[in-house]
């Protein structure tokens, strides 16, 4: 028996246990051994994370695909796992140590600290996995992986060693994003640009050979900067090669104020003649753009800051080289002064010498670490890099050739722009938690890269014997006796960027580099579902690594979903206080309601504006299905053995079979095309409007009437259509559908493993040949590249039944609409005249007279050659239906009311259009505010159109 009230929490807990106990989501089930694989790898969430709305959207869409393909008979592997999240996890544990007043990381030492991190991971690292299960994610949880599992770590080490051997990993001194609080390089993704109100300082740099005079512009050149403290590391001044003001100065020197270093004026197009003075200071060691300018002109790189963001001038050979006498005293005075304190003191010193021309308020973007909150410093340091440019070429070609496609396709442009302008990828991090770089240093700094320390020792001893640093005998002794080689080589302390291990995720999770059968069966994967913000950081790097090591693309389709914003269209953030917690929504409305909301709003290329009211609305949708299923159960509706819906005799029952088949096609095609919103919209309309509002209502007289063959058939069809709904809705709302299937379908087996309503058939020999020619030499039936299965589309249709029931529904709907427009009270019954009716209408109308009268609130239905005077005319499927409303409606008062409403709509349209025509408003207002005005205009235009239609009907009647 179905419980009276729909309680999502009870159902979700019970169904989760049922799925887990039955191994419903396990890949490689015996019954799927010969099935075509379908593989998705989960974007591994940080082990420190908890479910946020982006996770909820991303995993809901993946789950729809996986449940859909599982029901289509595929051997589905949805590979789950988590990322070790280097910085995030290390910060969590360090903060925990501090809160408990325990020794910090440095005091504990590396080994003890890492033990503590693993302990934390064992205790708290499964939080997000459990939350994904609450969402209903149908991953093969038995295959859960962690980026620092032994097998995955082995893959990481192998990849590093092989890329280094091939010259694709190397060490270099370049600028990185440096976090002065965490004391590590960080990726661009971990940098947040924050708008800051600061200043722009215009500084006078004296021209060499001229006596500096603040009043004489011929004795100096003016440069503008937001960072006066970095001027100590200036090694050039750049002007545009076509800027006439500076033509005679190109190639000459200026004297760096306070420091006295002579630096060259160079011509470079980076300088913009329209901005500031047209001349810019070049500090190659402290600015990414200046670094490139410096490279183009061979300028020195002088780093004047240390790792903690303090001036580092004493014993700084790069800084002190070539300085005039007396400059060392300045270096001593400012040594180890914090960068922001130094800024103030340096400006004061510059002002005292007349080197400051003016200071202007200046609002600009300043990079901050997303975790530390510290201002990020471009910092010149030795790091490990990947030659991403070389690896990117095959990855670009794979998308250009169509081997891998983006959905929506416009994201390919973003992919190309990033990949074609790719820079060396900095992969080293100055952390302890992560994959330690497999590089060891000899006594002279020589680097030995190897998979194990023993292998590195072997290489090192062989090298130093050959170089005659040690004798062959010493080499043999050290090889045999660990104590004798203690400290001979030391391992690099840095760890790898988290994205390095994530880049291997599609194949490392399958057991590579071992010759695991899963690699052969499930790689390459079929689809990747991810957000646009990590196309470069994760997607592109998986493409590069997959093609390099597996010689195949890692996935054939990349579906990029949009952002989930608040209901006004604003980006969610803690500072705005508009973050919506998906777990709170699950607690209140159930996981199914949240999932359906996200799917229904996931239009390609359009951000989701999430309102709690939408989630509540889809909870009501679930309740509607629940109540309809209870109604069916209470009326003894069940599918008898051998029932064939195509053989139904009753027009109403043939109609619901027709509508079910059409909906099945629509949902199937929409999911295949990643149009999740269209699929959800189609099934929603079928459940709420077609099945509940019309089919069940139209079937009630039969179900509540005396026993008859028609009643038996209707009972069977009500249950059959309900079961088809449960199948179609299952990928979107798995919990309620599985529960109702178990309670009402009365069949063996889980709904999660039941066949999809649109049957899949084996392709013919000719079709196989065609697919093989299109896909290449691989067999499309055993290759995951074969994404689009072949179906038998000879499913049920009955245009005649659709024409009859469709006419009944359209007629009732239009009459109800007119009654609502004209404020006719529910208790007031009106007449209906079918004017000039066709033979078909005259034949079908009597069969439905009682139903139409009851549902449309009519007193009677009659036929006439033409519509009577004073009647509102409706065009229903090409024929006229008239409602005589003279004496029922005050036409004059109704016209006045409609005119007034049209005036209000016009005012709303004018108000919105006035704002949208204001360029200043559109340029300065928040994006969500502008979008809200557009929506107001569209709503007002739609309202006006409906009012005009009602007014036109009224004019015809009067």
Automatic annotation (TrEMBL):
Coiled coil: 895-957
Keyword Glycoprotein: no
Binding site for ATP: 574
Domain Methionyl/Valyl/Leucyl/Isoleucyl-tRNA synthetase anticodon-binding: 653-828
Gene Ontology BP terms: valyl-tRNA aminoacylation
Primary localization class, coarse: cytoplasm
Alphabetical keyword list: Aminoacyl-tRNA synthetase, ATP-binding, Coiled coil, Cytoplasm, Ligase, Nucleotide-binding, Protein biosynthesis
Broadest EC class assigned to this enzyme: ligase
The family this protein is said to belong to: Belongs to the class-I aminoacyl-tRNA synthetase family. ValS type 1 subfamily.
Name under which the protein is recorded: Valine--tRNA ligase
Annotated source species: Bradyrhizobium guangzhouense
Organism lineage: Bacteria, Pseudomonadati, Pseudomonadota, Alphaproteobacteria, Hyphomicrobiales
């Amino acid at each position: 028996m179905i419980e009276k009230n729909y309680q999502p929490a009870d159902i979700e807990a019970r169904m989760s246990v049922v799925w887990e106990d039955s191994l419903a989501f396990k890949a490689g089930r015996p019954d799927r051994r010969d099935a075509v694989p379908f593989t998705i790898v989960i974007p591994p969430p940080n082990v420190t994370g908890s479910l946020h709305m982006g996770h909820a959207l991303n995993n809901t869409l993946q789950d729809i695909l996986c449940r859909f393909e599982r029901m289509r008979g595929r051997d589905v592997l949805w590979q789950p796992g988590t990322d070790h999240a280097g910085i995030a996890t290390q910060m969590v544990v360090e903060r925990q140590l501090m809160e408990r007043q325990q020794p910090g990381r440095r005091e504990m030492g590396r080994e003890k600290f890492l033990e503590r991190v693993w302990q934390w991971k064992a205790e708290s690292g499964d939080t997000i996995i459990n939350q994904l299960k609450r969402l209903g994610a149908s991953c093969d949880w038995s295959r859960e992986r962690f980026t620092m599992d032994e097998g995955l770590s082995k893959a990481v080490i192998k990849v590093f060693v092989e890329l280094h051997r091939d010259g694709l990993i190397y060490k270099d001194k370049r600028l990185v994003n440096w976090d002065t609080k965490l004391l590590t390089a960080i990726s661009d993704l971990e940098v947040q640009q924050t708008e800051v109100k600061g200043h722009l300082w215009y500084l006078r740099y004296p021209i060499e050979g001229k006596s500096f005079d603040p009043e004489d512009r011929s004795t100096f050149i003016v440069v503008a900067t937001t960072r006066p403290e970095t001027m100590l590391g200036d090694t050039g001044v750049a002007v545009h090669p076509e800027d006439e003001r500076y033509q005679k100065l190109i190639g000459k020197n200026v004297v760096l104020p306070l420091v006295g270093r002579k630096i060259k004026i160079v011509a470079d197009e980076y300088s913009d003649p329209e901005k500031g003075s047209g001349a810019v200071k070049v500090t190659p060691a402290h600015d990414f753009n200046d670094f490139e300018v410096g490279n183009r002109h061979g300028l020195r790189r002088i780093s004047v800051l240390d790792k903690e963001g303090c001036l580092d001038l004493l014993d700084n050979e790069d800084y002190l080289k070539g300085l005039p006498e007396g400059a060392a005293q300045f270096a001593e005075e400012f040594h180890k002064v914090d960068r922001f304190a130094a800024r103030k003191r340096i400006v004061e010193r510059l002002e005292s010498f007349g080197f400051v021309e003016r200071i202007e308020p200046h609002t600009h973007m300043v990079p901050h670490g997303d975790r530390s909150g510290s201002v990020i410093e471009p910092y010149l340091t030795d790091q490990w890099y990947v030659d991403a440019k070389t690896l990117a070429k095959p990855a670009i070609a794979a998308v250009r050739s169509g081997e891998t496609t983006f959905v929506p396709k416009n994201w390919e442009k973003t992919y190309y722009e990033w990949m074609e302008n790719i820079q060396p990828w900095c992969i080293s991090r100055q952390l302890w938690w992560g994959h330690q770089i497999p590089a060891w240093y000899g006594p002279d700094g020589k680097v030995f890269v190897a998979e194990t320390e023993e292998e590195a020792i072997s290489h090192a001893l062989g090298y130093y014997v050959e170089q005659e640093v040690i004798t062959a005998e010493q080499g043999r002794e050290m090889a045999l006796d660990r104590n004798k080689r203690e400290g001979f080589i030391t391992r690099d302390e840095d760890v790898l960027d988290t994205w390095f291990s994530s880049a291997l995720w599609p194949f490392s999770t399958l057991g590579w580099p071992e010759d695991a059968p899963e690699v052969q069966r499930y790689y390459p994967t079929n689809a990747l579902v991810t957000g646009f913000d990590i196309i470069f950081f994760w997607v592109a790097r998986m493409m590069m690594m997959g093609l390099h090591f597996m010689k195949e693309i890692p996935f054939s389709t990349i579906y990029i979903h949009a952002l989930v914003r608040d209901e006004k269209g604003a980006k969610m953030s803690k500072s705005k206080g508009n973050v919506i917690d998906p777990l709170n929504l699950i607690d209140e409305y159930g996981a199914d309601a949240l999932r359906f909301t996200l799917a229904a709003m996931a239009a390609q290329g359009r951000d989701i504006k999430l309102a709690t009211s939408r989630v509540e609305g889809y909870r009501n949708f679930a309740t509607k299905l629940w109540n309809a299923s209870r109604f069916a159960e209470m009326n003894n509706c069940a599918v008898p053995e051998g029932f064939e819906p195509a053989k139904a005799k009753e027009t109403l029952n043939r109609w619901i079979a027709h509508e079910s088949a059409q909906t099945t096609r629509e949902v199937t095609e929409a999911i295949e095309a990643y149009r999740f919103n269209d699929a959800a919209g189609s099934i929603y309309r079928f459940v709420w409007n077609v099945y509940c509002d019309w089919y069940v209502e139209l079937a009630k007289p039969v179900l509540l009437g005396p026993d008859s063959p028609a009643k038996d058939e209707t009972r069977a069809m009500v249950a059959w259509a309900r079961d088809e709904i449960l199948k179609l809705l299952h990928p979107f709302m798995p919990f309620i559908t599985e529960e109702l299937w178990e309670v009402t379908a009365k069949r063996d087996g889980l709904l999660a493993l039941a066949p999809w309503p649109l049957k899949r058939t084996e392709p013919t020999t000719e079709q196989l040949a065609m697919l093989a020619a299109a896909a290449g030499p691989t067999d499309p039936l055993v290759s995951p590249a074969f994404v689009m299965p072949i179906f038998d589309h000879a499913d049920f249709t009955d245009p005649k039944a659709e024409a009859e029931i469709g006419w009944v529904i359209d007629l009732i709907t239009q009459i109800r609409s007119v009654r609502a427009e004209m404020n006719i009270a529910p208790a007031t019954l009106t007449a209906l005249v079918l004017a000039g009716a066709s033979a078909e209408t005259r034949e079908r109308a009597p069969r439905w007279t009682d139903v139409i009268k009851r549902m449309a609130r009519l007193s009677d239905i009659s036929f006439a050659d033409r519509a009577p005077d004073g009647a509102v005319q409706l065009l229903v499927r090409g024929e006229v239906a008239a409602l005589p409303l003279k004496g029922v409606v005050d036409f004059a008062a109704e016209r006045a009311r409609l005119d007034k409403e049209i005036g209000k709509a016009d005012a709303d349209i004018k108000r919105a259009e006035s704002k949208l025509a204001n360029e200043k408003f559109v340029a300065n207002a928040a994006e969500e505010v502008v979008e809200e005005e557009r929506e107001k205009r569209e709503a007002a235009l739609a309202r006006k159109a409906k009012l005009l239609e009602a007014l036109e009907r009224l004019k015809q009647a009067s």
